[in-house]
Amino acid sequence: MTKITSLLVFLLVLSPVHASANSSAPLYGIEFPPFNTAVADAGCDGKLLAEEEELARRSPSLKLHMNHRSAADAEAGRTRKDSFLDSAKKDAIRIDTMHKRVAQSGKRGAQASSSPRRALSERLVATVESGVAIGSGEYLVDVYVGTPPRRFQMIMDTGSDLNWLQCAPCLDCFDQRGPVFDPAASTSYRNVTCGDNRCGLVSPPTVAPRTCRRPRGDPCPYYYWYGDQSNTTGDLALEAFTVNLTAAGASRRVDGVAFGCGHWNRGLFHGAAGLLGLGRGPLSFASQLRAVYGHAFSYCLVDHGSAVGSKIVFGDDNVLLAHPQLNYTAFAPTAANSADTFYYVRLKGVLVGGEMLDISSETWGVAKDGSGGTIIDSGTTLSYFPEPAYQVIRKAFIQRMSKTYPLIADFPVLSPCYNVSGVENVEVPEFSLLFTDGAVWDFPAENYFIRLEREIMCLAVLGTPHSAMSIIGNYQQQNFHVLYDLQNNRLGFAPRRCAEV
């Protein structure tokens, strides 16, 4: 057993995330407030809507609602072209960061278990609800933090682990919607001390290296970076997260959730209060609450042009599990030299127009230094493939595309792009991903072609020149219900109209 896995087991056994006193019965009657106003503690009437056995049978799941920021972009006068070009720039920084994380993991030689981390209890008891706008290709969720609970908008990110909020005193922070989190206003806030085992799961600030003179008293400072301009620094802390059950009006408080209280934050998080990490590491929101909700989470992302909300569900979604088109592919075993944060899948090839493209099988593997492989990621907007593979994909679309659509030369960033002026329903070649276990993910045209202006349509796929990693981004995932089944170590996907979920 590796050090990181041993530490995770220790944390779950000795310091588990726990629900409030009556853990078998949810608290009902909490009505969530307008944005960032306190919830009164007297909001619970204690009424049980079902017996405990019925609650267990129904397995209520933890649910968050999401919107896309396209509506906000429109209000700000930004065009869809501006928004997507900006997303591509942010993606480039993010991919570079991912490459560096993998490189660091390879140097450490850390090995994550290929088997799923099991929850102490696989009973589903927690829920979070929201109705949140999203920033430039990133999806945000509403989270209720502290005592009394206050509402904050956090970026949902399956490609990172640390949960964090901008915190008072905010010594260097970016603009966000609503006030920052104030630890002094919460009776349940407490710092993680530098002697706590959880402190070893975060990196110390590089400017002021960590010194731990009083292991049980001194706070645990952290530093977490996402790119050259994006990082957060502050104190690792524990707080209560108020979550809702799927039953109407049902809610529960979960104590002791570890998160970063960031006093120095900068980068590309405009409008959000922080970030909700859903990666595979032990500090992610998904990992910490697994003892509460169980072994699976899923999300359904509305298309980028919609202002309607979508959802992320922690726990089993019975409707999704019964979907006749639900397909699975196994997660790849995490290699000893790859990053244990990411969700790797085993890609075998790419099909365009129903034909397998001539791309070397070595393109999809993980190299000895940990680079390469394919991940699915909610925080990256477009989809990316190693540059040689991308050039083959690009060429295949150009060859198979109808000549009635003139090719636009020298369009910024995206390629190929076409002039489709006057055409409502543009016909494009089919696009699919084939996995090594035989699973095939077929995408509708709107998931891999983007209409930036009425007369311009571009392939929403790019190459990664400085990294061999392939990334299935959130644009390609829109209107699919995507399931992370960590008990069976597999990814599920089914087409759905996410606005109706």
Report how far apart the termini are: 40 Å
Class inferred from helices and paired strands: alpha+beta
Mean pLDDT across the residues is 76
Which consecutive residue ranges, at least 5 long each, have pLDDT under 50? 1-59, 69-75, 106-136
Oligomer: single chain
Radius of gyration in whole Å, from Cα? 22 Å
Strand content: 25-35%
Helix count from the secondary structure assignment: 9
Q: What is the share of helical residues?
A: 10-25%
Q: What's the shape?
A: globular
The largest sheet is: 6 strands, mixed, barrel
Topology, number of strands:
29
Give the spatial strand order of the biggest sheet.
Answer: 4-5-11-6-10-9
Summarize the structure.
This protein has 501 residues and is of the alpha+beta class.
Structural description of this entry:
The chain is an alpha+beta fold and 501 residues long. It has helices at 3-14, 52-58, 70-75, 80-108, 285-288, 290-293, 318-321, 387-400, 474-477, and strands spanning 18-19, 27-28, 62-66, 140-145, 150-157, 164-166, 190-191, 220-227, 230-244, 250-266, 274-277, 296-300, 310-314, 327-330, 344-345, 347-352, 355-356, 374-376, 383-386, 407-408, 417-419, 431-435, 440-443, 449-453, 456-459, 461-464, 470-472, 480-485, 490-495.
Annotation keywords:
501 residues; 6-stranded mixed beta barrel; 29% strand; globular; alpha+beta
Topology:
Layout: H1 3-14, E1 18-19, E2 27-28, H2 52-58, E3 62-66, H3 70-75, H4 80-108, E4 140-145, E5 150-157, E6 164-166, E7 190-191, E8 220-227, E9 230-244, E10 250-266, E11 274-277, H5 285-288, H6 290-293, E12 296-300, E13 310-314, H7 318-321, E14 327-330, E15 344-345, E16 347-352, E17 355-356, E18 374-376, E19 383-386, H8 387-400, E20 407-408, E21 417-419, E22 431-435, E23 440-443, E24 449-453, E25 456-459, E26 461-464, E27 470-472, H9 474-477, E28 480-485, E29 490-495
Parallel strand pairs: 5-11, 6-10, 18-27, 19-26
Antiparallel strand pairs: 1-10, 2-10, 3-13, 4-5, 4-9, 6-11, 7-9, 8-9, 9-10, 12-13, 12-28, 14-29, 15-18, 16-17, 16-22, 20-21, 21-25, 22-23, 24-25, 28-29
